[in-house]
Amino acid sequence: MPELRQNYFTKEWVIIATDRAKRPEEMVKHREAKTVARHVENCVFCVGNEGKTPPEVMRVPNAAGDSWQVRVVPNKFAALSPEAQPTRTIQRSRRTMGGFGVHDVIIDTPDHSQIMALLPEAHIANVLKVYKSRYDALSLDPRIAHVTIFKNHGGDAGASLEHPHSQLIATPVISHQVRERFQQALAHYDEYGECMFCQTLEEEMTEQSRIVLATDHFVAMELFASPTPFCTPIYPRRHMASFGDISAVEIADLARVLKTVLAKLYHGLENPDFNFTIRSAPAEYVGVKHFHWYVSIIPRMTRTAGFELGSGMFINTVVPEAAAEFLRNVKVELGVGAGG
Amino acid sequence: MPELRQNYFTKEWVIIATDRAKRPEEMVKHREAKTVARHVENCVFCVGNEGKTPPEVMRVPNAAGDSWQVRVVPNKFAALSPEAQPTRTIQRSRRTMGGFGVHDVIIDTPDHSQIMALLPEAHIANVLKVYKSRYDALSLDPRIAHVTIFKNHGGDAGASLEHPHSQLIATPVISHQVRERFQQALAHYDEYGECMFCQTLEEEMTEQSRIVLATDHFVAMELFASPTPFCTPIYPRRHMASFGDISAVEIADLARVLKTVLAKLYHGLENPDFNFTIRSAPAEYVGVKHFHWYVSIIPRMTRTAGFELGSGMFINTVVPEAAAEFLRNVKVELGVGAGG
């Protein structure tokens, strides 16, 4: 029989379609392996084409010191503009704000053919340090209300350029969805006197069945009410509302956990398209006791259809416990033991 | 300069990316026309294969009376089961409910090669009557909390079968998203003493720039803060909270409006993949003054990526006023004049 499960954090119901459930390996889309060059002449993110991007915002130099390992540039096709004014206009039902904001591209590596799952841990740690550096800098601007950091990998995940990169969009508003989830967490804290994320992590670590990987500082798991197959959030074990609070030791550990989970997806599910995003409290709420930041990794193995669009509910055809077991069993060279 | 616009109904912000805005015709995905047979031997929805579906729930006979025009059957791969018990279990952070529910397939036409945009109006009216009949019948069941009616057209919209069909999923819960939008509408009513949808329709009919089509009973338009290109809701002009309240005259008019909008998308954008869904107040709220049902038509011309998943905000690369103008100018044989 199918089962409805309610996401504890968002309150949204998910249908776990046990009757038509698929084994994790059935979800794999077999695709022909293609050879990707390490350097592509007309790729604006490749070495030698630095002049074709807008002026660089920051870089991490390479080991030799003669080039770069990670590079940040403004998005040439930015969704928002730092030149706009964040002025609000209200005219009956119409609410607008000038499209002020910052849209960065973080070029993860000079190597066009790389993917994050296969980068060295220390390199991923440098990408995370760049995320934090930009997050911190933009959070200081009083015109910025919220910063979303994300990665699109593959066409089904909305990536339009092949060269591995991440993005950051800083907005002058807090989205309704972020605000709403924040309010849910606040209501929980007010009722129970504890962070709902900390509580859930404790429960999940006791139960173990949905844990993919746990280290000293992070836990990667499947949600009890996971909306889509293999959607894997990574939570810091220490309570922190804001990504900006991550310590150097935690960055090194997150690099290892992120690499391991991405490598498990890469090897176990044959390089699926995916997004990841860092969900943090808005900058003005740094230090609150009720919200807990996390990284959400979302493989794009299914399509949202009319039911999802019309109700907000999802139908998940892979049982979360089976997905967790599958990912635990994918061995990767960095194999940090599953569970506690 | 880009502009942020806030959806009046959901409170969500949308980035209208004017700087990288595309002309409506640039959004067209040219695809090779393919010939589809009117009858496919191994299609379970085609005439002659009635025995291959679960037992029929209802049918509309064809004109000759020897076969059917529209047919409703239980989904063979149902997401929810009428045999399950809607029993709730709460165990710390884990909330479950037995997967009780009803999952119908509405086979729109016996003709495998047809699409809804090209069906005669009277035929579409019969499909809508079937929607209403099933909506009414299921709403009587006290175990059913909400009914979602939807259509998936094309692979990018999540359709797995080619034969034209719609679906209905009746759930024992009201989704958080539906509940939340309902609460927004209630808060508006309590503050202003009017339905926010009725107010907006009045404003939009005065302004005209976002209207695609208006008849005696319905208005099809682009939202001021439309999240995706050509997303076109159709609102009844008379205040009704529930789709079940639609009258016979309104059904006939909706058939005409739905056909016209779908035909404009079909001819103007070369048969894009799309979903539509009927968003109605939950059954128990029939008659409330603050909510207003509507049909939402959502062409799937872009992909949600990490920013959308991480923030809930969308980036729309077609200005809603340009989309409305484009659709107004697509002439279809049923061309009811644009505007008031």
CATH class membership of chain A:
Alpha Beta
Q: Main β-sheet of chain A: number of strands, strand sense, barrel status? A: 10 strands, antiparallel
Gyration radius of chain A (Cα, Å) is 20 Å
Separation of the first and last Cα atoms of chain A = 31 Å
Per CATH, the superfamily of chain A is HIT-like
**3D shape of chain A:** globular
CATH architecture descriptor text of chain A: 2-Layer Sandwich
Oligomer: homodimer
Strand order across the largest sheet of chain A = 3-4-7-9-8-13-14-12-11-10
**Structural domain count of chain A:** 1
Number of helices of chain A: 6
- Biggest interface, chains and residue tallies: A-B, 79 and 79 residues
Q: Would you list the SSEs of chain A in sequence order as H and E?
A: EEEEEEEHEEHHEEEHEEHEH
Tell me how many strands of chain A there are: 15
Helical/strand content category of chain A: alpha+beta
